[in-house]
């Protein structure tokens, strides 16, 4: 409970600070009071009923039960009848008594007549029977009755052993052995029993036999002919079809078969008639035969509810038959109910199917408990089984089913069914419909629904801002589907035929967009009526801007579907109506018109806060609307007459805001309270949040306003920056003063109480957070101001340094905060200076045998304890400041140690050098502390490392370094300030002799009063300690010349393979007869560059043009270290040698 109470107290404190000035800043920058989204009226099917009257519902209930009772076909997914009955009862919300009564009624109704529908489409790859390589195929088909006796199976094809019995049957005695009756009967006869007793084959065992047309000379015939057969027992009967090659030119057999439907008297009559026709047709026609091409048998009970459409492979009648190819059939079952009430209505099946679809849909939506528009139109398998059965029994085609689904869903639009679902359903009926596929009554139903839906879509489009607000889930997809529905509907062939319209869809939609914008503005103006004209205008502008911010939600869809620029069209309409509104307001005869009220708000003194806030918000709303115009390429209107008022208001706002902000600073510091993430982790106090909030409010305000005069904008920007910097400076001074009042001063003791340490951490963290809030340069948009200033520079004649002045003002403020933080951190770390000095002394004079890490441990332990005490309490930047302060102290102590102990052995300084590197790793802390880059680029670090490096270096290496530095200086020189020395040299390896020719010099400096010199050159091989026996040589003196020619050769006997530091040293001197010679310059030549040494091959003289230099201060540090080694003979000798005057 304690954390919750603390959070509540902090919230009350923050509200107290903000409300102290009436929430002045928050009101100015608060989001506009845009159009409040109306409640998202999500229809859920709970207690809602749209079922119609009770009698119709019960009739539909009975029809559903009747459909299940007389289920046809065998589906992939079988459901028990009981589960289907249960689903219907749930869908109709029927109680047990009602369900039982209606179930009994459904069972009493006469069962429907079952019909088998055959669509003979085509065949392919038939066998050729004629000499021309083709056949003349036709089909004969019928329904073969199943066995009525128990356990007596049906045959699918005849077998050879049964042909003998067939031949002996009475039926065969009446005709030729090869007659049509023999061959066709072979497929349609019933199977004999196991004892060989023949069946009664005097009758044709087919309920109905029908024949197709003959397709001449083809092996791939195409028929597309439909046949229908009555079925007595769908569970036992089977369908049979034969394909024959026709050779009878007179087609007498086909004529006879086609007349079978005229025969009465049952199966026996059909059989006798067919037998007689066959005999007469075959009489005297021995050379005219119909050849068998194959057959198919199909059990009717295997036909699925949705029917079959597939290729069937033709089967032989017996093993002797030779067949090939396939035939494509579409087969489905349907029913015909007789004696139903209302049977005179031709569309009854369609209407029942629509109602079933709707009833099941309402049930499924009710089950989900979700809003209607979230239903995806998917029915469960049990519902689909019932619907498929009803479609089969009603002989509904695909176009009927698409129409029923559309009409069912269309009837639910008033309960907010999804437009996405409507679009998919609409698209399906549009795709399925073809002329003459529906009866006139059905087309009338579809026409009425399309007309109604078109009107509904128009209404939705006009009200789309309320109906499809972005806050609604899936509203973007729904709006897209609405536009697609409108387009699909109006561009469909059905609509164009039955509901013709004049304007194209593009123009129709464009007019709706304009109409929608006009109606919206009219409604909004009525909604925002207010006695105060400023408040009324502000409400109107805010609502318009909210709608403009939603353009993208609608524009992308309309652009994609209709290529209309919704944003531009709507904004043009908004703009036109707003202009009319403003014109009427400005011409108003009210006591206080709009412009007068705005002028008073900008100039009254003392200012009225609410009026000033309203004026600023109106200005920001105008700017936001202008930005929408620019973004959508709408002409920006001239609003200069308004800007004069707004500019005065902005200046007044800054003056008022400054006073209120400083008052908030005082109150915030008075009410300051700690903020901690845990009981021992206090990082801030609450006041910094208030200050950062004020600065944020200022910058948000500044980003949303605009001053049309460039000079005035620069002036106001400078004023804004001054206000912000003053707020921050005053706050930091108060925070630091409060800390000092608690005892954090120069007299700080070594031990700091934890409470005071927490106050310290909170204070410098607050200052650091506020410092970060000064990063507002980008938000001031000074680059844009610069461009505007340059355009108006000739007119302004103002201060061209305004940008740097503003940036400098921010930088000065930031530097002030940093210096205050550093000062406080310096007090924290400086109190330990005596202890740290003691530890450094211990390090310097600890025994050499003791490891450096061990010698440093007292110091690092003390530093670690100090850092650990503040690590969790400080922002990382401030923690690094503490570490940097410690680094500065340690560096200072080590440098003092070096300066107090000059001339010590190099090992003494080497120990300090190692210790410093250990400390660097300590302060780096594996990447958690100071970065290596920050440490290595620290000037104090660089100086210390340089001093320690030189002092730990042996004398010989220092001497070599001295010469290397001079050689580096020579190589890096960019101008010949002291002249050039020309020499040639090579090394004779056999004689181990270095041959040197000193040719001459050019442009050496004048050192005599006559403007000339008397130059000569001193040559030696250095370093001297490596070549102690090699003499120093001189050239002759060339009097009064700045370009002397010496032309002298010298030889030096030295061993091959010189060290890398070995060089020829040339010193150019000016000879003076009365005083000491003057130094004119020096140059160096590495021996390894001379031909004959090392990798430099050849033995010929090579010329070198050496630039003369004079030593700079870079070598002073080396000389100082060498000079400190009074007891080192090599150092003393070297210093003596370089000071020798030749």
From TrEMBL:
GO terms for biological process: exocytosis. Residues 94-274, 977-1100 form the C2 domain. SMART domains: C2 (SM00239). Residues 1-32, 148-170 are annotated as: Disordered. Coiled coil: none annotated. Residues 158-170 have a biased composition (Basic and acidic residues). Belongs to the unc-13 family. This is Protein CBR-UNC-13.
């Amino acid at each position: 409970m304690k954390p919750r109470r603390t959070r509540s107290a902090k919230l009350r404190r923050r509200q107290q600070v903000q409300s102290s000035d009436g929430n002045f800043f928050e009101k100015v920058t608060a989001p506009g009071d845009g159009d409040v989204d109306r409640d998202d009226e999500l229809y859920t099917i709970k207690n809602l009923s749209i079922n119609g009257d009770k009698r119709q519902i019960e009739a539909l209930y009975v029809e559903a039960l009747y459909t299940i009772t007389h289920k046809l076909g065998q589906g992939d997914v079988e459901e028990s009848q009981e589960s289907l009955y249960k689903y219907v009862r749930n869908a109709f919300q029927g109680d047990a008594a009602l369900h039982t009564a209606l179930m009994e009624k459904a069972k009493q109704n006469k069962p429907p007549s079952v019909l088998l529908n055959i669509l003979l489409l085509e065949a392919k790859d038939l066998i050729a029977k004629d000499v021309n390589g083709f056949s003349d195929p036709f089909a004969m088909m019928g329904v073969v009755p199943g066995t009525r006796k128990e356990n007596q199976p049906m045959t699918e094809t005849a077998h050879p052993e049964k042909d003998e019995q067939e031949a002996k049957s009475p039926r065969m005695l009446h005709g030729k052995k090869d007659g049509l009756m023999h061959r066709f009967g072979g497929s349609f006869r019933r199977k004999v029993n196991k004892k060989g007793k023949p069946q009664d084959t005097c009758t044709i065992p087919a309920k109905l036999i029908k024949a197709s047309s003959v397709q001449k000379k083809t092996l791939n015939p195409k028929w597309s002919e439909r046949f229908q057969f009555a079925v007595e027992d769908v569970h036992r009967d089977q369908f049979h079809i034969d394909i024959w090659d026709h050779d009878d030119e007179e087609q007498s057999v086909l004529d006879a078969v086609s007349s079978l439907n005229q025969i009465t008297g049952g199966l026996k009559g059909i059989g006798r008639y067919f037998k007689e026709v066959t005999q007469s047709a075959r009489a005297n026609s021995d050379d005219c035969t119909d050849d068998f091409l194959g057959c198919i048998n199909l059990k009717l009970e295997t036909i699925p509810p949705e029917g079959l459409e597939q290729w069937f492979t033709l089967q032989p009648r017996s093993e002797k038959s030779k067949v090939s190819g396939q035939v494509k059939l579409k087969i489905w079952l349907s029913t015909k109910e007789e004696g139903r009430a209302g049977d005179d209505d031709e569309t009854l099946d369609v209407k029942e199917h629509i109602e079933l679809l709707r009833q099941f849909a309402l049930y499924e939506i009710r089950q989900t408990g979700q809003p209607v528009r979230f239903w995806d139109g998917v029915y469960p398998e049990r519902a689909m089984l019932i619907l498929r059965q009803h479609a089969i029994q009603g002989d509904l085609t695909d176009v009927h089913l698409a129409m029923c689904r559309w009409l069912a869903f269309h009837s639910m639009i008033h309960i907010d069914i999804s437009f996405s679902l409507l679009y998919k359903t609409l698209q399906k009926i549009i795709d399925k419909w073809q002329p003459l596929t529906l009866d006139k009554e059905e087309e009338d139903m579809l026409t009425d629904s399309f007309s109604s839906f078109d009107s509904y879509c128009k209404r939705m489009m006009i009200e789309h801002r309320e109906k499809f607000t972005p806050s609604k889930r899936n509203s973007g997809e729904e709006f897209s589907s609405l536009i697609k529905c409108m387009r699909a509907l109006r561009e469909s062939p059905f609509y164009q035929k039955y509901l013709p319209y004049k304007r194209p869809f593009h123009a129709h939609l464009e007019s709706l967009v304009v109409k929608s914008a006009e109606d919206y503005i009219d409604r909004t103006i009525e909604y925002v009526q207010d006695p105060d004209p400023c408040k009324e205008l502000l409400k109107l502008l805010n609502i318009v801007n909210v709608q403009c911010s939603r353009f993208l939600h609608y524009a992308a869809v309309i652009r994609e579907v209709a290529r209309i620029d919704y944003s531009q069209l709507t904004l043009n309409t908004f703009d036109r109506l707003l202009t009319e509104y403003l014109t009427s307001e400005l011409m108003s005869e009210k006591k206080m018109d709009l412009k007068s009220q705005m002028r008073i708000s900008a100039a009254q003194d003392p200012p009225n806060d609410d009026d000033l806030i309203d004026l600023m918000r109106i200005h920001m709303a105008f700017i936001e609307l202008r930005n929408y115009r620019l973004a959508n390429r709408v002409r920006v209107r001239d609003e200069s007459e308004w800007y004069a008022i707004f500019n005065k208001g902005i200046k007044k706002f800054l003056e008022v805001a400054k006073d209120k902000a400083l008052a908030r600073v005082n109150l915030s510091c008075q009410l300051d309270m700690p903020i901690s993430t845990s009981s021992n982790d206090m990082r801030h106090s609450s006041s910094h949040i208030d200050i950062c909030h004020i600065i944020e409010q200022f910058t948000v305000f500044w980003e949303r306003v605009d001053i049309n005069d460039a000079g005035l904008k620069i002036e106001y920007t400078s004023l804004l920056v001054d206000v912000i910097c003053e707020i921050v400076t005053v706050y930091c001074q108060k925070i630091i003063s409060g800390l000092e009042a608690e005892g954090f001063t120069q007299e700080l003791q070594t031990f700091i109480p934890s409470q005071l340490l927490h106050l310290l951490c909170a204070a410098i963290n607050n200052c650091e957070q506020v410092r970060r809030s000064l990063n507002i340069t980008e938000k001031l948009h000074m680059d844009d101001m610069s461009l505007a200033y340059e355009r108006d520079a000739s007119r302004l004649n103002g201060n061209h340094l305004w940008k740097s002045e503003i940036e400098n003002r921010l930088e000065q403020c930031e530097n002030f905060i940093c210096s205050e933080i550093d000062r406080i951190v310096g007090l924290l770390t400086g109190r330990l200076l005596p202890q740290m000095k003691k530890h450094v002394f211990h390090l310097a004079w600890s025994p050499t045998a003791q490891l450096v890490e061990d010698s440093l441990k007292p110091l690092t332990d003390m530093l670690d304890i100090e850092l650990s005490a503040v690590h969790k309490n400080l922002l990382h930047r401030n923690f690094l400041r503490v570490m940097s302060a410690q680094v500065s102290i340690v560096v200072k102590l080590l440098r003092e140690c070096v300066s107090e102990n000059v001339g010590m052995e190099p090992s003494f300084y080497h120990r300090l050098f190692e210790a410093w590197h250990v400390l660097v790793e300590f302060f780096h802390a594996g990447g958690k502390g100071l970065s290596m880059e920050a440490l290595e680029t620290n000037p104090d670090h660089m100086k210390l490392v340089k001093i320690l490096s030189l002092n730990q270096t042996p004398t010989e290496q220092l001497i070599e370094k001295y010469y290397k530095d001079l050689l580096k200086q020579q190589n890096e020189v960019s101008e010949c300030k002291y002249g050039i020395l020309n020499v040639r040299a090579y090394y004779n390896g056999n004689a181990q002799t270095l041959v040197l020719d000193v040719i001459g010099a050019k442009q050496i400096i004048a050192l005599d009063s006559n403007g000339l010199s008397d130059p000569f050159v001193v040559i030696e091989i250095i370093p001297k300690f490596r070549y102690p026996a090699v003499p120093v040589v001189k050239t002759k003196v060339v009097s009064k010349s700045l370009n002397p020619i010496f032309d002298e050769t010298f030889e030096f006997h030295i061993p091959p393979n010189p060290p890398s530091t070995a060089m020829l040293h040339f010193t150019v001197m000016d000879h003076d007869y009365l005083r000491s010679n003057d130094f004119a310059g020096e140059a160096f030549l590495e021996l390894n560059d001379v031909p004959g040494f090392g990798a430099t091959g050849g033995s010929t003289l090579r010329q070198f043009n050496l630039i003369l230099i004079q030593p700079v201060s870079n070598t002073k540090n080396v000389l100082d270290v060498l000079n400190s080694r009074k007891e080192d003979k090599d150092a003393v000798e070297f210093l003596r040698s370089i000071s020798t005057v030749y």
